[in-house]
Write a sequence for this structure.
């Protein structure tokens, strides 16, 4: 696949899924994986919400480098598809950015509107720097890579 096609495949896959495994780096340098519900728009940028006291938020405050995986539980290994990415995580602080992330969440997860306001809730933006589209329908362990 060409770079443009890989970017589109990644964006489409992310838009049609909602759960990722996010890896952050702990304060003492160890990797830590987190399961997170996320939203995306028409590109590879992802947003998620969490409390600022969580380990993932604390880790991101100290080290913006993250990696992630989005996939499904496939019974047939030859049908496996998924996305892996390396990126930078930013805690949103501008009201317009927070509003945008909130709107994406309400669009994908309308029930979130019923949640009580939480002053400790923050939104995090992940901007990929490299992405990988896994597609075993093209052959076992097939993977296309792209830089963002």
């Amino acid at each position: 696949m060409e770079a443009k096609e890989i970017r589109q495949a990644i964006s489409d896959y992310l838009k049609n899924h909602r759960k990722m495994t996010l890896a952050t780096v702990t304060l003492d340098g160890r990797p830590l994986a987190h399961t997170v519900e996320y939203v995306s728009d028409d590109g590879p940028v992802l947003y998620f919400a969490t409390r600022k006291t969580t380990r993932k938020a604390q880790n991101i405050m100290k080290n913006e480098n993250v990696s992630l995986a989005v996939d499904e539980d496939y019974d047939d290994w030859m049908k496996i598809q998924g996305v892996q990415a390396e990126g930078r995580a930013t805690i949103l602080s501008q009201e317009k950015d927070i509003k945008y992330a909130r709107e994406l969440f309400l669009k994908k997860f309308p029930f979130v509107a019923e949640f009580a306001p939480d002053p400790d809730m923050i939104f995090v933006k992940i901007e990929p720097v490299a992405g990988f589209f896994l597609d075993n329908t093209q052959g076992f362990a097939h993977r296309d890579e792209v830089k963002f």
